[in-house]
Structures are given as C-alpha cells and as structure tokens.
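Final report, Chapter 2: Outcomes

The project's central promise was a pipeline that accepts a single protein chain and returns its three-dimensional structure in a standardized token representation, suitable for archiving and comparison. That pipeline is now operational. To close this chapter, we reproduce one record exactly as it appears in the project archive, with the input sequence first and the structure output second.
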Amino acid sequence: MVTDPIADFLTRIRNAQMARHRIVEIPASNVKKRLTEILYDKGYILKYKFEDDNKQGIIKIALKYDPQTKEPAIKSLERISRPGLRQYAKPSEIRRVQNGLGIAIVSTSKGVMTDKEARTQNVGGEVMCNIF
C-alpha cells in the first residue's frame, strides 16, 4: 500500500529518467491522469496512454529526452505538499517556479491545474508539486 500516491507517481518518473527508460508504467487514478495530461500539454513528456486492466488501470508514459544530449526534458520533480505537512496557498501566494520557466501543479476547488491557470482563475489550493 502506498501512503502518498502523488510522490510515488513523481518518483517512478524520476527513476525511469535516471535509468534512461523510454516508457514508464504507473497505476492510475483520476489525479494521476490529470497530472499526466498537464505534463503532456506543457511538453514534458512525449505521449501517454490510459489502459484499463479491469482493476484500477495503468498509465503508460513515453518520456521525452533531448535528441542530441540525451538529457531528460524534466530536470526536477519536487513534491511540495505531502500527507504529513499540507501546503496551501492563495492565488497571490503561489510562487513561480524557476522564474516562470517551470510549473507548479495546484489542486484547487476547480480541479487540478498549473500555477498560471490558478492565478488567472483567481483560485488557490494545495500546491502539489513543482516541475522544471
């Protein structure tokens, strides 16, 4: 049993990139699916696929690397809010990641979104993770 599924999601991606894997499989949930969609929309992963295995489902993510240097597109995955210490922020308090080069993923009352979308819609929430 995993006590922090979001940290497990981030760790699986981080470990797969360090091992230079092309595809990583992650147990699915609605929040993880939304995180995957955000990573794809922002260009951090090549593609993804949601598969149904008659249980909870699987997310297959094709990781993205630079064609010349073979460096991963994601430099850092950092969990901010964790089960032992939740981190909430108002729209004005949500910090920019790497001076706007990265993204923070925020769980709001209007769903899971990036920090820029949360500021635009003027909603705060739980800052889940930073990615750059």
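Archive annotation: The chain has three helices and eight strands.
This record, like all others produced under the grant, will remain available to the consortium after the project formally closes.
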